[in-house]
Amino acid sequence: MTDLDTVRQMDAADPLAAFRQRFLLPEGQIYLDGNSLGALPRDTPARVADTVAREWGEGLVGSWNSADWIGAPQRIGAKIARVIGAAPQEVLVADSTSVNLFKLLVAAIGARPGRHVILTEPGNFPTDLYIAQGVAALLPRVDVRTVPRADIVAAIDPDTAVVLLTHVHYKSGALFDMAAITRAAHDHGALALWDLSHSVGAVELDLTAANADLAIGCGYKYLNGGPGAPAFLYVAARHQATLRSPLTGWMGHAAPFDFGDDYAAGAGVNRFLCGTPPILGMAALEVGVDLWLEADRAALFQKSRALCSLFIELVEQRCAGLGLTLASPAAADARGSHVSFAHADGYPVMQALIARGVIGDFRAPDVLRFGFTPLYIGYEDVWRAVEILRDVLDSGSWDTPAFRARAAVT
């Protein structure tokens, strides 16, 4: 049985322990919600302030050239390519995940004429389903088909244009076999589009080895880019010449500063740019990505698995009989970097935990979700969080009107 001395020894031996000081974390809190919003890197405020005061304030419009604002989507995209196992010219930072998903879904359907099905799973992240439904409403004869995850491969058929899945499930943390499903899609002539929002920076990714076609992901979770950080998209080089973005904005033009009346798609992945890049958000995101790239990724992913496994072990030992049911895969290689437990009164339980300084989140109808970001979470944090969880459940301190009252964001 793991005890407190053991977890302290694990922290002492942790090669990533020094990264915790690179983040501005409130004293007295155990922040287990980096899978929703990553913590603030210490270097971000100064970087954003410099972008505002010097680049914008002094450089003014000239900073599009002198500070390379215009190259930010490609420059930061090339850095994210190193995180996800892609080539530099295959990734762009642009827009939001929802907008990028719309662009790539429409492009994928257009590249598979005669096919009309977007195949996904029920319970996929809602924006993925909503965007797919919106695309189907716009395009003639396109349908969204949902089947249970165990049946995805068998459901791919000649009508399937694109398989749309979230690599790490936002609620359960369950991990799809990207290479196997992509291969199955290709065997039937379909494309595969992956949402990496809960994967990027959290689990090993090699889009090249998986022969992935298309992907999107956000910058504000494990990449620590800040609330609403710009998202990214990936288009495999082999598809870039034939896919067409439905949002033909001026930044995606082959020569945007020629100011011609007629659209001509830019070269390569650049055609998936649309509007002017949000430079302040880009500056914050680049700090988070650069920080992540400093870490030893083998140690990072090993620690991710170890933190999650320790949390499951301790909860099952110390909270037995208190109403919790594991809602994530037990096997470390089958999940991402967050762990979910179901509880009949999950919402007020999570509010009681937050009041005690353990910051997780709740996902309807009954899931308490805990994220473990290896750069700033330690093993003793896990121990302390479980002790507080046990006390909250054992004491019934969660059962108050204040904790049951729903906030706008859960």
UniProtKB/TrEMBL annotation:
Residues bearing the modification N6-(pyridoxal phosphate)lysine: 221
Domain of life, source organism: Bacteria
Listed cofactors: pyridoxal 5'-phosphate
Pfam families per record: DegT_DnrJ_EryC1, KYNU_C
EC number: 3.7.1.3
Keywords, alphabetical: Hydrolase, Pyridine nucleotide biosynthesis, Pyridoxal phosphate
Catalyzed reaction equations: 3-hydroxy-L-kynurenine + H2O = 3-hydroxyanthranilate + L-alanine + H(+); L-kynurenine + H2O = anthranilate + L-alanine + H(+)
Tagged with keyword Ribonucleoprotein: no
Pathway: Cofactor biosynthesis; NAD(+) biosynthesis; quinolinate from L-kynurenine: step 2/3; Amino-acid degradation; L-kynurenine degradation; L-alanine and anthranilate from L-kynurenine: step 1/1
Keyword Hydrolase: yes
Signal peptide: none
Database matches in InterPro entries: DegT/StrS_aminotransferase (IPR000653), Kynureninase (IPR010111), PyrdxlP-dep_Trfase (IPR015424), PyrdxlP-dep_Trfase_major (IPR015421), PyrdxlP-dep_Trfase_small (IPR015422)
Single annotated GO MF: kynureninase activity
Record: residues binding pyridoxal 5'-phosphate: 97-98, 125-128, 166, 195, 198, 220, 250, 276
Family: Belongs to the DegT/DnrJ/EryC1 family. Belongs to the kynureninase family.
The protein's assembly and partners: Homodimer.
Chain's role: Catalyzes the cleavage of L-kynurenine (L-Kyn) and L-3-hydroxykynurenine (L-3OHKyn) into anthranilic acid (AA) and 3-hydroxyanthranilic acid (3-OHAA), respectively.
PANTHER family assigned: KYNURENINASE
Protein name: Kynureninase
Taxonomic path: Bacteria, Pseudomonadati, Pseudomonadota, Alphaproteobacteria, Sphingomonadales
